[in-house]
Amino acid sequence: MIEPAALAKLREYLPKNFNDIFMINRALTHRSYINENKDVLEDNERLEFLGDSILNFVVAEWLYNSFPEKDEGFLTKVRAALVHTRQLSLFARRIHLGPALLVGRGEEIAGGRDRDPILCDAFEALIAVIYLDCGMDAVKEFIIPLVESESEEILRSHLEEDVKSRLQEWAQSKGYPAPNYVLVGESGPDHAKHFVVEAIINNKKIAKGSGTSKQLAEKNAALNSIKKLGLIRL
Fold this sequence. Notes:
Blueprint: H1 4-11, H2 21-27, H3 31-36, H4 45-66, H5 72-82, H6 85-94, H7 105-109, H8 116-134, H9 136-173, E1 180-187, E2 194-201, E3 204-211, H10 214-228
Antiparallel strand pairs: 1-2, 2-3
Helix pairs in contact: 2-8, 4-5, 4-8, 4-9, 5-9, 6-8, 8-9, 9-10
């Protein structure tokens, strides 16, 4: 059974009408615990399967309603970021899920309570039991505040990753070769370098960008280019 103090802490984040303690225990049971406790019949893998599907649906619906102007490609990429193993493990840590996990002694010694895949799977299993015990509305009330708290940072990161591909797509639509990023400036000591990069398309200089790494400078050059070309407004 889950340690009472750990369970009490976790329940602070769960729906108030969530009362199925048996299912909470199952959701937080890692397979390593089954191997060492033969009286426990099932781990959380089946629940994790169900929770994964529910999570994808809820996040997809939230994105669809929150960003009516965005296309399918954008929605798919942002959903993938929001349900990624690393992101879900961060959600799990936020609700203090790790201390409530049931793991085998070997996994405990190896730091299993703080491993991203284990936390992610348990978080998805927990979503499943909230659904089974309380229904979909309770699942949304549980998940959406967590998603909203991270969405701004994820959207910013998504934009940074996306700007170079958007600029390349524009160049290709015009029949031009892929953009070329040329380092035109470098300053500062080794521990605090500053780079300036210029985006060039079809031998024409479009815009410059700067940053503390060449990669960041390229992203900023791409961002400034698509703004200059009128492809986005920020």
